[in-house]
Design brief:
Helix content is 70%, strand content 0%. With 160 residues, it is mainly alpha-helical.
Length: 160
């Protein structure tokens, strides 16, 4: 019976009524916008592909999950069970970004060099280039976390 009540009362529009959603979403948008600005300063052209890209400074994944965890902690108490769950989610996500996905990006760089040499040496048809910017350095993850904390603090401070 409890499950039926949850389904009956489900309203996706309610997500937009909480500082948790806005903290996470705005932290992600802020991090991606910082990437666009940094790229524009470096290349003197605006590349909106950074809005949906992975990798780079700061980590948008880290910003988003840290923004979510911070806003939950600020509104529900940092000792609450839901804040502990959010903290665990943040730890797994940031660890993955800085280790597993970063290592996969480094492996893609090596494989791309090998494939390029094979194509050149054996006159093979051009092969698909693997995406190399997958993960983050620890510095990118840390700045993503700082971004998330700052955005969540601002959202919760000014939430009506």
């Amino acid at each position: 019976m409890l499950f039926a009540n949850v389904i009956r009362d489900f309203n996706p529009g309610n997500y937009f009524l909480h500082p948790w959603f806005w903290s996470a979403f705005l932290a992600w948008i802020t991090a991606q916008t910082i990437k666009i600005v940094r790229s524009a300063v470096k290349t003197r052209s605006v590349d909106f592909e950074y809005l949906v890209s992975t990798g780079g400074m700061p980590s948008a994944h880290s910003a988003m999950v840290t923004g979510l965890a911070t806003s939950i902690g600020l509104t529900e108490g940092f000792g609450s069970p839901i804040a502990m769950l959010a903290l665990g989610f943040t730890a797994v996500t940031t660890f993955d970004a800085a280790t597993v996905r970063h290592a996969a990006g480094e492996q893609a760089k090596v494989l791309n060099r090998i494939m390029k040499n094979l194509v050149k040496a054996h006159q093979l048809p051009t092969m698909t280039h693997l995406k190399e910017l997958l993960g983050h350095t620890r510095k990118e993850v840390c700045w993503g976390m700082v971004t998330g904390v700052c955005v969540a603090t601002a959202v919760c401070r000014f939430w009506p």
